[in-house]
Design goal:
Length: 434
């Protein structure tokens, strides 16, 4: 399974962005996060063009939680997408990269007063309000503002997308958003409308992540449009925009069957149009927030194989120089991956092995049971589809320095984030040995 610009070159090595990954491992060290820049840009364009062709009044907002660096913000800006940030830190990253504040959407289920103040000061485009506590803080901030603070209200639409339990966020029993069934969503509208300094632009929902089915998107459209109709009837206001969040799935292994981008977006847009017509309301602006679908398959992590433990008749473990500190997803979600030996890229599979990380946890396994060519210490293992929720979810567990991030494109490699050093690990310690 090769994505984007990945191919096998004349040396039988994995090549991405025109760069030999074996050379990159030597030059930058391992573990190493590689990002295929051309593929990221292609995905941005595909989402943007497909959505705007289906519905001109639309916007694609990249979800920065999937992968965010200042360099990534630049790409998103150049590709004319907007940006979803979910914390003061992500907002700071975007502003530091001079990302246009008007195109920033500020999310989060527990934004602090300070974070909200920062968002208002920078003039972000929309604040996606999650709860009453936040609404009160915003009302207060609005009193000190000349222009109105534009918001969307996050609604919990009560839909269960078929995905891993821990990453469902749309069901009624959720920490996110205002519930529909318990009347909180209507109360939130009332609250928002009662503040002169706040301008309610519309509503938001997010029904989960790595979704493969059409139905949850159809249902989200139905629920949100019916809510917009109810609000129109009760308060006489028209909903000008609805943000349907992210969740579009990608193919980590051959078992994954995501829909095409066209299918996902057609489903959503057709449903929105259908329900607008049925309910006799104006078709709103349609916003989406893909994260994984933009960067997931564009990322590859390179590791060096170290110790190999063979338990005859049981299992062969090959250990690599990273693990749950750079990829928590197998431990957290039971996530599955495909991989290749980058220096033997075209060789046929010869043995079944399991890939272990180097953290001090039995659960630190990156891949169980994968067929690979014969593996020896020093081989470079490439794990695919590590562009989303890897760098951003990395940690220093076991005091492992975070890997470097390198963008590859047209045969050149650009270091975007340097590898952490041991000094970095102690940078915030204030203890002094007397
Ligand atoms: C509010 C919101 N928007 C967008 C996303 C991005 O989701 P995905 O990476 O599945 O597209 C998420 C994460 O699931 C989210 O919580
Ligand atoms: N972090 C998750 C997805 C959660 C998305 C954020 N709402 C993943 O790795 O799949």
């Amino acid at each position: 399974m090769l994505f984007g610009t990945a191919r096998i070159n004349e040396l039988n090595h994995l090549e991405i962005g025109g760069c030999d990954t074996v050379d990159l491992a030597r030059e930058f060290g391992t573990p190493l996060y590689l990002m295929d820049e051309e593929y990221i840009r292609k995905n941005c364009r595909l989402y943007k063009h497909t959505l705007s062709k289906l519905h001109e009044n639309s916007e694609v907002i990249y979800a920065g939680k999937a992968f965010l660096t200042m360099g990534m913000c630049k790409i998103i800006e150049e590709e004319d997408l907007s940006l979803d940030v979910v914390s003061g830190g992500e907002l700071y990253t975007a502003i530091s990269a001079e990302f246009p504040a008007k195109r920033i959407y500020f999310h989060g289920n527990n934004k602090s007063y300070e974070e909200l103040r920062m968002a208002v000061k920078y003039g972000v485009g929309r604040i996606i309000v999650d709860n009453f506590y936040e609404l009160e803080m915003l009302k207060d901030l609005a009193k000190k503002q000349r222009s109105k603070i534009k918001i969307l209200l996050r609604i919990t639409p009560g839909i269960e997308a078929h995905t891993h339990d821990y990453i469902k966020t749309g069901q009624l029993d959720s920490k996110f958003g205002f519930g529909l069934e318990n009347g909180h969503a209507v109360m939130a509208v009332e609250h928002a409308l009662s503040s002169k300094g706040i301008k309610l632009m519309g509503f938001h929902c997010h029904i989960g992540s790595q979704i493969f089915e059409r139905e949850p998107f159809n249902m989200a459209a139905e629920v949100m449009l019916k809510f917009a109709r109810d609000i129109h009837e009760s308060f006489g206001i028209e909903t000008s925009e609805i943000d349907f969040g992210g969740g579009f799935g990608i193919k980590y292994t051959d078992d994954d069957r995501p829909l095409s981008v066209e299918n996902y977006l057609e489903t959503l847009v057709d449903s929105v149009k259908l329900w607008s017509e049925k309910l006799n309301i104006r078709v709103p602006k349609i916003l989406i927030e893909p994260g994984r679908a933009i960067v997931g398959a564009a990322g590859t992590t390179l590791y060096t194989v170290g110790s190999i433990k063979n338990i005859p008749g049981v299992r062969k473990y090959i250990s690599v120089d990273g693990g749950m500190s750079d990829n928590i997803r197998p431990a957290l979600y039971g996530a599955k991956y495909s991989a290749m030996i980058a220096n033997k890229a075209g060789n046929p599979p010869e043995e079944k092995v399991s890939v272990a990380g180097k953290c001090c946890e039995s659960g630190d396994m990156l891949i169980w049971d994968i067929e690979l060519p014969r593996v020896v210490p020093g081989d470079i293992l490439a794990i695919f589809c590590t562009g989303a929720y890897h760098y951003t979810m990395s940690s220093n567990y076991n005091m492992l320095p975070r890997p470097a991030v390198v963008f590859v494109k047209d045969g050149s490699a650009q270091l975007m984030v340097q590898r952490e050093t041991y000094e970095d690990l102690l940078r915030n310690e204030v203890f002094k040995n007397q």
